[in-house]
Fold these 2 entries.
Entry 1:
Amino acid sequence: MRTRFAPSPTGFLHVGGLRTALYAYLLAKQTKGKFLLRIEDTDQTRSVPGAIENILATLHWAGLHPDEGVMLRKGVVAQEGTKGPYIQSERVEIYRKFAAELLAKGHAYPCFCSPERLTKMREAQIAKKQAPMYDRHCLNLSKQEIAQRLEKGESHVLRLRIPRERTLTYEDEIRGAMQFKGHTVDDQVLLKSDGFPTYHLAHVVDDHLMEIDLVIRGEEWLSSTPKHLLLFEAFGWQPPRYAHVPLLLNKDKSKLSKRQGDVATEEYIREGYLPEALLNFLALLGWNPGSEQEIFPLAELTEQFSLERVQKAGAIFDTEKLLWLQGQWMRRLSRQEFAERIRPVVGERFPDALRDSHFPARAALIQERLTFFKEAPAMLGFFYEEPKVTVELLANPKQKVTPELLPKILRALTEICEATLDDEWTEDALKEKVSAKMKVEGLSQGQILWPLRAALTGLPYSPGAYEVAVALGRDTTLTRLQTAAARVE
Ligand code: GLU
């Protein structure tokens, strides 16, 4: 199957766009077909410099590499494939040629109406509570008048002539049987007065010439689809199949917007989301695997994804689920990869981490606890600088650790550590000695472990006391216990 993603370079890549790209990618890969990337920049007023690079870099980050069309090669925008160019502004002559064909066959007509006339017409229609629609003023011009005005070079657009008496039907891959009454469909502008095509003409020509089998796109294009099908018919071409994916919604069911959560994929990249987590999340937004499975690597999505299981209703963008998936994907990284990915992040704040041969073991302590790499420096800082230990931190009413008890507890801890030699410095040995001491001193587990952990890390939350003591080593553990003891005296 040949599928395509066809963004307009008007700024960032919307997360809904990334989901559309993902679905198109999955179906192409599933059928061992091709995933194309085409840039739709015929509306030059909306094109933003740098947007193409940004969209391509974002897809690259997500691992959705196009097989054909526009792509990044060594960080530079390149085009590959035999059906190019794949950037619409480089294809304008092609569209003009096809527009002329429609005009000659009578499927399109020139319209000379001024913007002022069109505005007035629209306002009048709205006042009468009618849907705004071109009133076909120029369809009634005589052949002779048209010829004269064209001859004079009068500014005009080209419109598609919709057969108003017809009922237009097609079968959407997601939404099922669709029906549109011709008289409700506007005579779409195909070619603008500057000679540039509109999206409607350009993408139909391209989907045909680029041999696209399946068009997957946002629901906002659903009502334009009859125009596109009529264009295919007018050219005498076989149309592709269409699948319109549901909108993304906020929790309150309003359309996902900037106001309620971020819509730009780059925001999620900046936040530190893993591409695996974001793709997993987007795949499940609207697609139901039909099982309890929630974690999907790209390869499994490719195997299991199907349009039949994509819902029609809008899909709620549940940021808590996204966070949960992010945590799950953090845990799934191999220990080695995890350590490699957080080392530079920690190293930025604590350069010693860059040279630390114990780093992988230390990193492993936090893999189960962290959601974003950026949390790592705060969580591992106690390995690289003296912790700030206060009585408030060492004491803990919940664990029944009172300030008065602290000197006794810290003394007991020091004795345990002194009695544990370097070569038996393991979690098990420490645990055993702690239990024996608890009995002798009449202390509970919490009364011993909370101050130990707090003295070693200076943090209210951290990996467990034994793990930390072993990772820090006997000498550092003893020094930190002494420092803590000096604070509470
Ligand atoms: N250029 C259109 C957009 O960015 C693509 C619509 C389509 O896929 O046909 O929304």
Entry 2:
Amino acid sequence: MLNRSPPDRQHAAAEGIVLPHLGQRAMVTGGAGFLGSHLCERLLAAGMEVLCVDNYFTGTRRNIDHLLDHRCFELLRHDVTIPLSVEVDQIYNLACPASPIHYQRDPVQTTKTSVIGAINMLDLANRLKVPVLQTSTSEIYGDALVHPQAETYWGNVNPVGPRSCYDEGKRCAETLFFDYRRQHDLAIKVARIFNTYGPRVHPADGRVVSNVIVQALCNRDITIHGDGSQTRSFCYVDDTIDALFRLMGTADEVTGPFNIGNPHELSIHELASLIVELVGSRSRIVHLPLPQDDPRQRKPDISSAKEHLGWEPRTGLREGLLRTIAYFEDLLGQPSIRDMVAA
Ligand code: NAD
Ligand code: UDP
């Protein structure tokens, strides 16, 4: 269901954001994934046509089932590591697994998706002379030594560890985006997204919010890696999508990179305790070994996004978690999903 009100053109113009013309066509790679499916909805609500491109590596038809009958929505099963020839007015490049257990399952493919996928999308954008937006990540800062992280920080990334396929793949993609800008004067936009959560994260995705909510709802042990003192800053999906939409509407010279995240930082232990309280769960917390290269501290400095996009997150953590818990409650009511999660 499309549940967002149409954007207010006057308000957007006052903030320097240009809304797309009705009927313009956007391509969303990774459109059947968590963020991609929300972005497709948002673009349709803005009156755009949407071409959703996905190979279903982590995405699922379930995320976009409700859009299939929309007359402005088109779905293409395709792997972004293979060049693609279509005609569109904007490209949002989201294709890439984002959860550590998924991007580490086939690390070579993860690097190919990030790097070759970026080249294919940049070549297409360059041929069509249309803007292209890259969903980069806070992971490009690695195990940050500077706190909070501003875009000026170059990061602390292990180039040969188990997270490197994702971190370095995304770093190389950023390099490619800025080289296409310098070499071809292409309109590029780079968003460094920090941990985002909300409805439609896959229940077996492995990221902390979905893991803990599913465990709490099933009254199973809550798995905290290490002592739980490592921190993250969690942004609700609607806020992240709003930032991507605004970024695409900026003038060509506005490239970013922009940190997109919620600066409300908390420890993983605090997060787990809050979820247990909100669910009213009987789960107990157990500790597992901390994965290698797991970043210790993460919090975005979003001054640049505030200034250039007129954006900051609006959804508080409790409110966002309650909405996400309601989604998983509903999902776990379906026997096939419950069996999959129990397996
Ligand atoms: P997700 O795993 O739910 O979605 C990724 C989508 O990309 C899936 O639908 C998957 O099937 C598709 N995909 C993967 N490889 C592909 C390929 N080679 N060709 C075509 N499709 C492919 O993850 P998400 O959380 O929605 O993340 C979307 C994007 O945002 C990713 O690029 C991710 O790196 C970035 N990001 C997300 C977060 C977050 O917290 N969710 C944080 C930082 C960055
Ligand atoms: N984490 C955890 N239990 C889980 C899943 C993750 O304690 O069941 C930890 C993980 O080790 C990391 C933090 O939670 O310290 C965030 O993990 P996630 O995979 O969600 O995101 P990322 O590490 O990519 O920021």
